[in-house]
Amino acid sequence: MRLTLISCEVFTRELCETAARSPHQVDLVFLPKGLHDIGCSGMRERLQAAVDRVDESLCDMILLGYGLCNNGIAGLAARGLPLVVPRAHDCMTLFFGSRERYEEYFRKNPGTYFLTTGWIERGEATGDLRQLSIQHANGMDMTYGELVEKYGEDNAQYLYDQLCDQTKHYKKLTFIAMGLEPDGSFLATARKRAGEKGLEFTTEQGDIRLLRALVNGPWDEREFLTVPPGFRIAPDYTNDLIRAEKADT
Amino acid sequence: MPVIQTLYDAILNGNAKAAKEITQTSLASGVNPQALVDDTMIPAMNEVGRRYEANEYFVPELLIAARAMKASLELIRPLLSARGSEPVGRVVIGTVQGDLHDIGKNLVGAMLEGAGFEVIDLGVDVSPEKFINAAKEKHATLVALSALLTTTMHSMKGVVEKLNESGMRPGVKVMIGGAPVTQKYADEIGADGYSSNANAAVALARRLVAA
User: Fold this and answer.
1) Which residue in A10, A30, B100, B163 has a CA-CA distance of 20 to 30 Å to A46?
2) Is B5's pLDDT higher than 80?
3) Taking the mean position of all CA atoms in its chain, how far away is CA B147?
4) Highest mean pLDDT: which of A156-165, B106-115, B140-149?
5) How close, in Å, is residue A55 to chain B by CA atoms?
6) Coil, strand, or helix at residue B186?
7) Is the pLDDT of residue A121 over 90?
8) By percentage, how much of chain A surpasses pLDDT 90?
9) What would the mean pLDDT of B20-32 be, rounded to a whole number?
10) Number of cross-chain residue pairs from A and B with Cβ atoms under 8 Å apart
11) Is the pLDDT of residue B2 over 50?
12) A218: cis peptide before it, omega within 30°?
């Protein structure tokens, strides 16, 4: 089959390797991770534009390398081709290899900040996405100095504590090793960041199984949603997580 | 009265120190505390809300205005309580179980305080039982739930269900918010209201406690 995989860039290393070994012909389109920071309607619009750019005469099906991502894919419509999406909360489900494993880890380890190669290399929003980000709009990316300048010393500390210290409730930093790291440099970076933030550091072996299943098929209903042409993605509040609804409703 | 006008400005500009000082001076000179709240402070917060809706103010301005309001209210509230005056409503607020994000929750809490609610903040990672117990103990009429993740938002449903079982409904209303939360989800789990931002949350809370 000829597939186009539109994915968040945090999966770049995993999906390039998987596509290279796939029985299918896979075109890869990576979109910036910063889309997650601009709010769900902005994210959906840019994803829709990427879906709409796919040449339907050269492709049989579109795959999405995204989770529900806080409703960032909600409303995304399949046009002439079916869209296949993993039933995942976010990228961590895909790094962990299954929802069950991620949910269990999440439950047992509240306050964990995760890093992978993609999150280390591509975790920061850049360019116009940074300017458009919710963090920027809400002053969450301001330095202490900038806060003092704008709001005075007394308010700056308060605002910094309220808005800018985003890791204050985190206890642990977990590096998810996917088995394709070139050397120990990513692990070392993750360990260093944990130290800088005063977090306990652990590593967890990731599982590329679900990302492989996304690229290679056969896309069973339990783990993947297939959105037929004329339908769009809607959040579902059952265990299915997402469902397809008619695009004109 | 120029002094009152200045308290209005102190809140509007988020100057907590000035708000506190002016409140102290005003109270010492015999200004009626209830009038100070009704005629100056609440209008100031209403103006803060209007500026936010008009994109003239952003989240930092909301936070510092609410902080100034709180500094002033801390002096006034004991006087009001002594006169037997009740807050607009009592709200138990928290981020749901498993979720540690609190920026939105804190902002809504600060704005509700600014609007004259008594806010009981349970913090983050709050279990349904904790919400129910706090609502019972504090005689709250409103429970406000926040979640930032689709992995954690379903805990909201548990809170509503437990409240239903406790027999405290419909006397206790539930309002919900957070990035993945929608009005549709609120309807589906039987919450009484949803708000997409802190300013609208105040209007919603007022509506719910009045209902």
Assistant:
1) B100
2) no
3) 16
4) B140-149
5) 32
6) helix
7) yes
8) 79
9) 94
10) 80
11) no
12) yes
Structure tokens at A209: 């199984």
- Upstream peptide bond of B170 is cis (omega within 30 degrees of 0): yes
Chain B CB contacts of A106 below 8 Å: 98, 151
DSSP states of chain A:
-EEEEEEEGGGHHHHHHHHHT-SSEEEEEEE-GGGGGS-HHHHHHHHHHHHHHS-GGG-SEEEEE---TTTTTTT-B--SS-EEEE--SSHHHHHHSSHHHHHHHHHHSTTEEEE-HHHHHH-S--HHHHHHSHHHHTTTT--HHHHHHHHHHHHHHHHIIIII-TTTT--EEEEEE-S--SSSHHHHHHHHHHHHHT-EEEEEE--THHHHHHHH----TTTEEEE-TTEEEEE-SSTT-EEEEETT-
Instruction: Catalogue the E-assigned strands of chain B.
Output: 90-95, 118-121, 142-146, 173-177, 193-194
The fraction of chain B above a pLDDT of 70, given in percent, is 98
| C-alpha–C-alpha distance, residues A181 and A177, integer Å | 7
Q: Tell me whether residues A71 and B103 touch, CB distance under 8 A.
A: no
Domains of chain B, residue spans: 2-82, 90-210
Tell which of A134, A237, A241 to mutate to test the B interface (max B CBs under 10 Å): A237
Task: Break chain A into its structural domains and give their ranges.
Answer: 2-126+170-246
Give the three-state DSSP class for B78. helix
Q: For B172-204, b where at least 16 C-beta lie within 10 A, e where not — what string?
A: bbbbbbbbbbbeebbeebebbbbbebbbbbbeb
Domain B90-210 has CATH 3.40.50.280: yes
How far apart are alpha carbons A190 and B101 in whole angstroms?
22
Q: Which residues of chain B make contact with A154, given a CB cutoff of 8 A?
A: 16-17
ipTM score of complex: 0.84
The yes-or-no verdict on residue B205 having pLDDT over 50 is yes
Does residue B1 have a pLDDT over 60?
no
B16 → closest Cβ in A68, A150, A154: A154
Q: Which of B151, B160, B181, B183 to mutate to test the interface with A (most CBs of A within 10 A)?
A: B151
Q: What are the tokens at A189?
A: 């970076």
Tell me which fold the domain B2-82 belongs to.
1.10.1240
pLDDT on residue A165:
77
Q: Is it the case that residue A168 has pLDDT exceeding 90? A: no
Say how far apart CA B59 and CA A7 lie, in whole Å.
32
Cα Rg of chain B, angstroms: 17
